[in-house]
Write a structure and sequence with these properties.
CATH superfamily of chain B: Pyruvate-ferredoxin oxidoreductase, PFOR, domain III
Structural class of chain B: alpha/beta
Largest sheet of chain B: 6 strands, mixed
Strand order of the largest sheet of chain A: 2-1-3-4-6-5-7-8
Strand order of the largest sheet of chain B: 2-3-1-4-5-6
Number of strands of chain B: 6
CATH superfamily of chain A: Thiamin diphosphate (ThDP)-binding fold, Pyr/PP domains
CATH topology of chain A: Rossmann fold
CATH class of chain A: Alpha Beta
Distance between the termini of chain A: 49 Å
Strand content of chain B: 15-25%
Low-confidence stretches of chain B: none
Chains: A alpha/beta, B alpha/beta, C alpha/beta
Oligomer: heterotrimer
Structural class of chain A: alpha/beta
Order of helices and strands of chain B: EHEEEHEEHHHH
CATH topology of chain B: Pyruvate-ferredoxin Oxidoreductase, domain 3
Number of domains of chain A: 1
Mean pLDDT of chain B: 93
Low-confidence stretches of chain A: none
Largest sheet of chain A: 8 strands, mixed
CATH class of chain B: Alpha Beta
Radius of gyration of chain A: 17 Å
Number of strands of chain A: 8
Helix content of chain A: 25-40%
Chain lengths: 251, 180, 348
C-alpha cells in the first residue's frame, strides 16, 4: 500500500504558537493565505501589510517580508510600497475598524485608483484588540462595550457594507464576499483569495475579498455559536457573493 | 547699493512677471536679486504685487517694508504703496489707468501712459513691459536694456515665447520715453 | 557647474529632490507650498518617477512610509496644519526607523491660521511632534540656494541614519525666487539591505514600530537614542555673521535671520557691534556652539516669527553666559528691522 501525502504544514507560515483566541477566524485566513503563497510559489515575493487590530502581528505568522501600517492606513502604505516594488505581491490585510472607520478614506481611494494590491478584509462585526467595542459593521441591536444597549442605528448609523460600497467605483477589478464559518465556505474563501492574488500577479488591478468571520471572545459566546451567528445574523445582511469579476459587475 | 522695489497692479497686468524679468536681467549682470510675490487669498481681487530687491551685495531680506522704487499700474496699488515709500523714492505710475496724481512731495514721481504706449507698439496687454523700460531709463543701474532679451528668453514659457520680440520692442519703447 | 537660474524656493526643493534621486512623492495640496506638488507632478513622470496626489495628509505620509519601506528615496511636503496630520506617519516611521524627507513650509497658526510665512512649528518640529520618544532631524534653510542644497543633504542624512529628516521653511522662503545653482545629481544611492524586497534567499524583513514583548520597547528606544547621539555629535550645522567683535548677538533661523542681517547693517552703520548666530539644524541644536558664542557677548536677542519657541533652546544653552532677550512676531508677520534696531540700541 503506497502512502499519499494529502496535507502538510504550509511552508509560508511560521511554526509559532498562535496568539489568536479559540474559534477566531484570523488563524484560518492566515493559513489560507500561506497555502496560496505555497501553491502560487510567491513566498519570496510577497509583501504583507499588517493593520492595527488583532492581526497587527500577522507578520509573526506569514513568512514573508512584512510592514506594519498605522491604524486605517494600510491601503495607503500598500500603495506606496507597491509603487516602488512593482513586481512584488502586496497583500493588504485589514479588519473592520481599520477598513471602514478610521481608514475609510484610504480604503475608498486605493480602490478608486485601482491600486494593484490585494485587500483581505476580515469583518467580524466588532473591535477585537481593544476589547469588544462597536465596529462600523456591528449589527443592529448587537451589544458591545460601547453599545451596551445594543447598536441603535438612529444614534450611530447602520452597519456598512464594504463590498457594495466599493462596487460603486469604476476601478476595482474583483470584489467578493466570503465567510469562514464552515468548511464549505472556507474552501470558497480560499478560491476567492487565490483569485485576488492571481489577479495582482497578472497585473489586473485592485482585488478585494471580504471575509465574514468570528470573534467568540468579544461576542461572549462559544466558538460554534459564533460560527452559527455569522451564518444566521451576519450573512443575511452581508450577502455572500461575487460583486465584480474581471472588472465587470456581476448580475 | 541695494534697491528695494515694489511692482503692483491688478491681477493680469503682469506685475509678478515684470518683477521676475527685472530679476533675471539683473542676475545676468551678476547682481544679487530676490523676488517674492503676494500670494494666495491676497491675490484674489484687488491688487497683486511683488517685492524685488536688486543689490550689489548679499540680500539680507527679500521683504520690502519701505520701497525705494514703486511701479504701480492701477489706482488701488498707488493708494496702497505710495504712503509706504522711502523719502526720496521713485514712483512710476500708469497714467492710462490712474487719473489722480501722487500726493507725496518728498518722492520723485513719473507718470507713464503705459497702456497707450503698449498698444501703439504692438500689444495692448504689455503695459508692464512699458513700465520696465521706463524703470531702467530712470534707474539705469538696475539693468541694461540689452539684458531684457536674455531675461525674456528665460522667464517666458515656451508657449508664449512668440511674444518675446514684440515685448522687447515695447520695453525699448518705454526706455525711449523723454523722462528722467 | 550648472548655470545660475532664477527659481522659486518651492520649485528649488522639487528639483533638488529629483537630483537627490527621489523618484516618489506623495502629497496633498495646501498653501503656501502648492508649487512643490505642481512641480513634482510635472517633473517626476519625465524622469520615470511617481507623483501621486493623496486623499489626505494621513494617506500621503503613509504612502511615503510604504515607499520608504520598499527602499526608495521618497518625499512629501505640506504646511503647518497638514504637517500636524502627518505627525502620525512621522511617529510610525521614526519608530520603524524608516528614512524620509518631509518639507514643512510653515504658515501662521494655530488652526487654519493664515497663509503667510511663520515659525510657529518650531516646538512641533524639534520636540518630535507625534507621540513617543523620538526625534526628527530638522534643517532650516535660509535662502533658495540652501533650500536646494539642504534638500539633497536631507536625503543623505535620512538614509545614513534611517531617520525622518524635515526641511523646515516658511511661506516666504517657499514663495521667494532667487538665483540658484542647482546641486550636482546624486549618482549612486546607498544600498538598503533592510528594505522590503521579498524574502528571496534570506529571512523575511519585518518593519514595524510595535514592540509588545517584555522589555523590547525599552531596548528599541535606547537604540534610537544611540542613533540620535551620533547625529548630535556629527551633524550640527550653524552659521554666523559679524560675531568676531560683536557685543550683542542676534539668534534667528530661516526668514527671521535674513531680517536680522538687515538690522545688523543698520546697527553697524551706527557703530553698534552686533552679529548673528543662525542655527541651521534645529535638531540637533548647536548647543555647544551657541554657548561658546554667548561667552563673548553682552546680550542675546532671539528673533522669531512666533511668540517665542527657539528662544527656550537659546536660554537653556546660552542663558548661563549672558542675558537672553526675545523679540517675535506671530500670525504670519515678519520681524521689523526698525524694532530689532531699537531693541538692540536699548541695550547700549
Amino acid at each position: 500500500m503506497s502512502e499519499e501525502k494529502i496535507y502538510s504544514f504550509p511552508k509560508s507560515i511560521r511554526e509559532v504558537t498562535t496568539h489568536y483566541c479559540a474559534g477566531c477566524g484570523h488563524g484560518i485566513v492566515h493559513k489560507l493565505i500561506a497555502q496560496i503563497m505555497d501553491e502560487l510559489g510567491i513566498q519570496e515575493k510577497t509583501l504583507m501589510i499588517a493593520p492595527v487590530g488583532c492581526s497587527v502581528l500577522a507578520y509573526n505568522y506569514i513568512k514573508a517580508d512584512g510592514l506594519e501600517a498605522a491604524h486605517g492606513r494600510a491601503p495607503a502604505v500598500s500603495t506606496g510600497l507597491k509603487r516602488v516594488q512593482k513586481d512584488k505581491v502586496v497583500i493588504c490585510y485589514q479588519g473592520d475598524g481599520d477598513l471602514l472607520a478610521i481608514g475609510t478614506a484610504e480604503s475608498v481611494h486605493a480602490a478608486n485608483r485601482g491600486e494593484h494590491i490585494t485587500v483581505i478584509f476580515i469583518n467580524n462585526a466588532i473591535y477585537g484588540m481593544t476589547g469588544g467595542q462597536m465596529a462600523p459593521t456591528t449589527m443592529e441591536g448587537q451589544v458591545t462595550k460601547t453599545t451596551p444597549y445594543g447598536r441603535d442605528p438612529k444614534q450611530v448609523g447602520w452597519p456598512i457594507r464594504a463590498c457594495e460600497l466599493l462596487n460603486t467605483l469604476e476601478a476595482p477589478y474583483y470584489i467578493e464576499r466570503c465567510a469562514v464559518y464552515d468548511v464549505k465556505h472556507i474552501n470558497q474563501t480560499k478560491k476567492a483569495i487565490k483569485k485576488a492574488i492571481q489577479n495582482q500577479i497578472d497585473g489586473k488591478g485592485y482585488s478585494f475579498v471580504e471575509i465574514l468571520s468570528m470573534c467568540p471572545t468579544n461576542w461572549g459566546v462559544e466558538p460554534q455559536k459564533a460560527a452559527d451567528w455569522v451564518r444566521d445574523v451576519m450573512e443575511p445582511y452581508y450577502p455572500i457573493k461575487c460583486f465584480r469579476d474581471g472588472g465587470e459587475k456581476t448580475k | 547699493m541695494t534697491k528695494e522695489i515694489i511692482f503692483a497692479g491688478f491681477g493680469g497686468q503682469g506685475v509678478i512677471l515684470a518683477g521676475k524679468i527685472l530679476c533675471i536681467a539683473a542676475m545676468n549682470e551678476d547682481k544679487f536679486v530676490s523676488h517674492i510675490p503676494s500670494y494666495g487669498a491676497e491675490m484674489r481681487g484687488g491688487t497683486a504685487n511683488c517685492s524685488v530687491v536688486i543689490a550689489d551685495e548679499e540680500i539680507a531680506s527679500p521683504v520690502v517694508e519701505h520701497p525705494d522704487i514703486c511701479i504701480v499700474l492701477n489706482k488701488p496699488s498707488m493708494d496702497k504703496f505710495e504712503p509706504r515709500m522711502k523719502e526720496g523714492g521713485i514712483l512710476i505710475y500708469n497714467t492710462s489707468l490712474i487719473e489722480n496724481k501722487p500726493k507725496r512731495t518728498d518722492i520723485k514721481v513719473y507718470g507713464v501712459d503705459c497702456n497707450k504706449i503698449a498698444a501703439e507698439n504692438g500689444s495692448e496687454r504689455a503695459a508692464n513691459m512699458v513700465a520696465l523700460g521706463a524703470l531702467v531709463k530712470i534707474v539705469p543701474w538696475l539693468s541694461k536694456v540689452d539684458s531684457f532679451a536674455y531675461a525674456l528668453d528665460h522667464a517666458i514659457s515656451a508657449r508664449n515665447k512668440k511674444f518675446n520680440e514684440v515685448n522687447l520692442a515695447i520695453i525699448k519703447a518705454g526706455n525711449s520715453l523723454p523722462i528722467a | 557647474m550648472s548655470e545660475k537660474i532664477l527659481m522659486k524656493g518651492n520649485e528649488a526643493i522639487g528639483e533638488a529632490a529629483i537630483l537627490a534621486g527621489c523618484r516618489h512623492y506623495f502629497a496633498y495640496p495646501i498653501t503656501p507650498q502648492n508649487e512643490i506638488p505642481a512641480y513634482m507632478a510635472k517633473r517626476l513622470p519625465q524622469v520615470g518617477g511617481t507623483f501621486l496626489q493623496a486623499e489626505s495628509e494621513l494617506a500621503a505620509v503613509s504612502m511615503v512610509m510604504g515607499a520608504s519601506a520598499g527602499g526608495a528615496r521618497v518625499m512629501t511636503s505640506s504646511s503647518s496644519p497638514g504637517i500636524s496630520l502627518k505627525q502620525e506617519g512621522i511617529s510610525y516611521m521614526s519608530g520603524a526607523q524608516l528614512p524620509a524627507v518631509i518639507v514643512n513650509m510653515m504658515r501662521g497658526g494655530p488652526g487654519l491660521g493664515n497663509i503667510a510665512g511663520a515659525q510657529g512649528d518650531y516646538f512641533q518640529a524639534t520636540r518630535g511632534g507625534g507621540n513617543g520618544d523620538y526625534h526628527v532631524l530638522v534643517i532650516a534653510p535660509g535662502n533658495v540656494q540652501e533650500l536646494a542644497d539642504y534638500t539633497v543633504k536631507a536625503f543623505e542624512l535620512a538614509d545614513k541614519y534611517r531617520i525622518v529628516c524635515m526641511i523646515l521653511g516658511d511661506g516666504y522662503l517657499g514663495q521667494m525666487s532667487e538665483p540658484l545653482i542647482l546641486p550636482e545629481a546624486v549618482k549612486e544611492l546607498p544600498a538598503k539591505d533592510w528594505a522590503l524586497t521579498g524574502a528571496k534567499g534570506r529571512d523575511p524583513h519585518i518593519i514595524a514600530s510595535l514592540r509588545l514583548a517584555d522589555g523590547a520597547l525599552v531596548g528599541h528606544v535606547y537604540d534610537l537614542y544611540k542613533n540620535y547621539a551620533e547625529i548630535e555629535k556629527n551633524e550640527v550645522i550653524y552659521d554666523t555673521q559679524n560675531l568676531e567683535d560683536a557685543d550683542y548677538m542676534l539668534v534667528a533661523y530661516g526668514t527671521s535671520s535674513r531680517v536680522c542681517k538687515k538690522a545688523i547693517r543698520v546697527l553697524r552703520a551706527e557703530g553698534i557691534k552686533v552679529g548673528l548666530f543662525r542655527p541651521v539644524t534645529l535638531w540637533p541644536f548647536p548647543k555647544k556652539e551657541i554657548a561658546e558664542a554667548a561667552k563673548k557677548v553682552k546680550k542675546i536677542l532671539t528673533v522669531e516669527m512666533s511668540m517665542g519657541q527657539m528662544v527656550q533652546d537659546v536660554q537653556i544653552n546660552a542663558g548661563k553666559y549672558c542675558d537672553v532677550d526675545f523679540y517675535g512676531e506671530p500670525g504670519g508677520m515678519l520681524p521689523v528691522v526698525e524694532k530689532i534696531v531699537q531693541r538692540v540700541k536699548s541695550y547700549v
